[in-house]
Each structure stands twice: as structure tokens, then as C-alpha cells.
């Protein structure tokens, strides 16, 4: 976690509170008042903002940033919109979000407007994709997936060709089917992971647990 041994910048403070909100809501509430001296109203506004950011399927910056942090990687921040999420660590964050009673987490990773050149680059440079699963703004796990993987590459290439043929936007996805037998790394598992078992398909739950048991 982030160490608080000296005054933080606003950006560092936001990341600190983001991580706590995603991993420990009780500690988040405590530290929010310590850091900001905010009122009950400002706390509720802050909590709502974080919750919306971590649950909105169309907004991923906050979830990507927390995913990278829990995986021990750098993140480019909000100023840079293109390139890898973590250029220094050759890594990319791919959050998958749901809510209690919604579609179950299945370990799918999505890449917007992917090109064949980018697929090839990710393969050749062995980008590490960090797959994270989120339920109601709680980050349940972060798994590192090496993209120098023929199953992943072939699946993305075929998907790209189908998208071109059908004349649709090139949002490419791959799933646990393509990477379950790869050399994966579990970077983070939530202390209350078992409480959210019903929010994952069984193969995804089993995968996370097997990685935990093999650590």
C-alpha cells in the first residue's frame, strides 16, 4: 500500500484514497477525515464520486490506476491518454466491472480500437496485461497475464479480421480460455474475496483460488 510518511500531493492523496476505497472501506473513511478534515457532506460527495468511477463501465481511469498500483506498477496518470498504462513496466491495466446481481466476472479483457500492429507489438514485447475484477467498486483480484502467448495473439488476430469483415469498431477481447494455462501471477486478492464468490463464474473463481494456493 502507499506509505504516508510525508505530505502528499493532491494526486498522491487521491490515489491513496482510491486504493483504500477499492480495498478497505473502513480504513478509507478513517483516512479521508484525517487527510482532508472534510465535513460529512464532503465525505459523501467524495464517496459517491469514487463509487461512480469504480462502477461505471465506460470510465476506467480510476480502476486502471488502482489495478496498476496493486500490481506494483507505475501509471501514466490522467495527462497521457495514449500508449501503455505503465510504459516503464511494460504493462496494461484491464479492469472488469460488475455489481451484485449483475453479470458475473469471467476474466475477460477488452482492448478498444486495437490494430494488428498493436497486437503484434504487445506480443513481441510481452506486455503484461493486469486483469482485475471489480464488484460494487471493490477490487477483488489483480492477475498478471503475459501477452507473448500464441493463443491470445491468434484469437485477437482472428477477432480483428472478423471486425473488419463486419465493418464494426475494432474492440477486441480475449478471455480466460486463451490464458488459463499461461504463467500467471496473482498480485492482489481482497481479504473478503470469498464474500463475492457468487459474483464470479466458477472457472474464474477457481482460477483465482488456484493462483492463491500456489503462492
Low-confidence stretches: none
Helical residue percent band: 40-55%
SS-based class: alpha+beta
Strand order of the largest sheet: 1-3-4-6
Any idea of the CATH topology of one domain? PvuII Endonuclease, Chain A
Helix count from the secondary structure assignment: 8
Largest sheet: 4 strands, mixed
List how many beta strands DSSP finds. Answer: 6
Q: Output the CATH class name of one domain.
A: Alpha Beta
Broad shape:
globular
Distance between the termini: 19 Å
Mean pLDDT over the full residue set: 92
Can you write the helix and strand succession as a string? HHHHEEHEEHEHEH
> In percent terms, what proportion of residues is strand?
15-25%
CATH architecture designation of one domain = 3-Layer(aba) Sandwich
* Estimated radius of gyration: 18 Å
What does this 3D model show about the protein?
This protein has 215 residues and is α+β, with helices and mostly antiparallel strands. The chain has a domain at 80-213: PvuII Endonuclease, Chain A (3-Layer(aba) Sandwich), CATH 3.40.210. Helix content is 44%, strand content 17%. Strands 1-3-4-6 form a 4-stranded mixed β-sheet, sandwiched between helices. Helix 1 (10-23) runs antiparallel to helix 2 (25-36) and helix 5 runs antiparallel to helix 6 (150-166). The longest helix has 17 residues, at 150-166. The model has no long low-confidence stretch (mean pLDDT 92).
How are the SSEs ordered, and which strands pair?
Blueprint: H1 10-23, H2 25-36, H3 40-55, H4 61-70, E1 91-98, E2 109-111, H5 116-124, E3 128-135, E4 138-146, H6 150-166, E5 172-174, H7 176-179, E6 185-189, H8 202-213
Parallel strand pairs: 1-3
Antiparallel strand pairs: 2-5, 3-4, 4-6
Helix pairs in contact: 1-2, 1-4, 5-6
